[in-house]
Amino acid sequence: MARVKRGVTSHAKHKKTLDAAKGFYGRRKNTIRAAKAAVDRSMQYAYRDRKNKKRTFRALWIQRINAAVREHGLTYSRFIAGLSLAGIEVDRRMMSELAIAEPAAFAAIAEKAKAALPSA
């Protein structure tokens, strides 16, 4: 059986890790052992924070909608309830954009939601 020298593949793996560690501080950017640990951890953070980003943005949209809807005499929860009763299906991201860019259109939607609510 032929002898296999693994220098090429090892070098390629190390290069890939060190390229991923570009911009890190200290030994983490140029020592393979430190770089591998740092890159592995950074990948875990990246995976986790791709999920957290969605949460954070949804919370931001809700805060913006709540602030905009209070100007029309509603709370966020009453507004969402009114939307579902009125049969209006616009997601929170678009609702937030409307509240910022098109206040007149948002006011019309808010009035429809308010009218659909049972007066109690």
UniProtKB/TrEMBL annotation:
Entry's Gene Ontology molecular function annotations: rRNA binding; structural constituent of ribosome
CDD domains cross-referenced by the UniProt entry: Ribosomal_L20 (cd07026)
Keywords, alphabetical: Ribonucleoprotein, Ribosomal protein, RNA-binding, rRNA-binding
Biological process annotations from GO: ribosomal large subunit assembly; translation
GO cellular component term of the entry, any: ribonucleoprotein complex
One Pfam family here: Ribosomal_L20
Protein role: Binds directly to 23S ribosomal RNA and is necessary for the in vitro assembly process of the 50S ribosomal subunit. It is not involved in the protein synthesizing functions of that subunit.
Family under the similarity heading: Belongs to the bacterial ribosomal protein bL20 family.
Full protein name: Large ribosomal subunit protein bL20
Species of provenance: Hansschlegelia quercus
